[in-house]
Amino acid sequence: MAHSNSTQEIHDQSVVFRRSHIDVGYVCGFLGAVGDLQKEGELQDIVLEVEGRRFPCHRLVLSAASPYFRAMFTNDMAESRQKTVVLQGFDADVFEEILSYIYSGTLHVSLDRVQPLYQAADLLQLDFVREKCSSYMAMSVERSTCVDMYKFADVFSLDVVRKDCLQCIHRNFVEVACSEEFCSLSVDQLTEIISHDELEVKEETGVWEAVVRWVQHSREDRLQHLPSILPHIRFNLLTSDDTAAILEHPLVREDPGSTEVVKNVVKEASNQKPRLGMTMEMFCFQCT
């Protein structure tokens, strides 16, 4: 009897035991078929208009790919009942690339398009596109791109890209500070850059000169920020002649508040560290 019960249990287990199988070929084939429908213009039920260009699409495909479109087409929004939806805030060529990715799963990224591509993906909540654009920017940081990418990364909170850009700016500060892009920094971005120990400058006067260029780029709007910027200049690393020259500079003399800031900073800034470039210079001098 016991043997009979055991046999019955084994039989019951074999009946209820299930296995799941994933047909990879089906997944790829399905995506390919969806792409073919798009290329052939079949079963399209919505037109998206971007900068005057019309992109016939499928609501189902868009909704499956993007939470943005899913909310648009499944909630009781006006767009869910329209045959043509005009999208604002997109570049038409970039949107075409986004659609290509949605229908094929393949993404093409280039330096001239990576930022608007990220912006579009951020709005459409396309995580894969955001991730790949962020990685591409991180790999593309160099002297000619670091300031522009730093500003972009700062806006979109791309911490890895932002960190890489700051390091590149610090390493190439003298050259970067002479660029037009440097003068487009916000006051907060400027102060963050010049407050770092890692700034590679041989003399602190180079930091002051960079600040002067930044202020003079838009004097009327930026002179008011000078008192908040000056404390980030390390006056203890300047000679008394350099400090006197700064106090006599037209920008400082024009703003009485800046003069007081300089005098106060000079009194309090006796223990500020040398910049990285200065430290390296001193180390080399000691070794000779």
TrEMBL record:
One Pfam family cited in the UniProt record for this chain: BTB
Residues in a coiled coil are none
* Highest taxon above the source species: Eukaryota
Q: Transport among the record's keywords?
A: no
Query: Could you tell me which Gene3D superfamilies the record lists for this protein?
Result: 1.25.40.420, Potassium Channel Kv1.1, Chain A
Q: Residues in domain BTB? A: 44-111
Sorted alphabetically, the keyword list is: Kelch repeat, Repeat
Do you know which PANTHER family this protein is assigned to? KELCH PROTEIN, KELCH REPEAT AND BTB DOMAIN-CONTAINING PROTEIN 12
Q: What is this protein called?
A: Kelch-like protein 18
| Taxonomic source organism | Branchiostoma belcheri
Q: Quick one: which gene encodes this?
A: LOC109471506
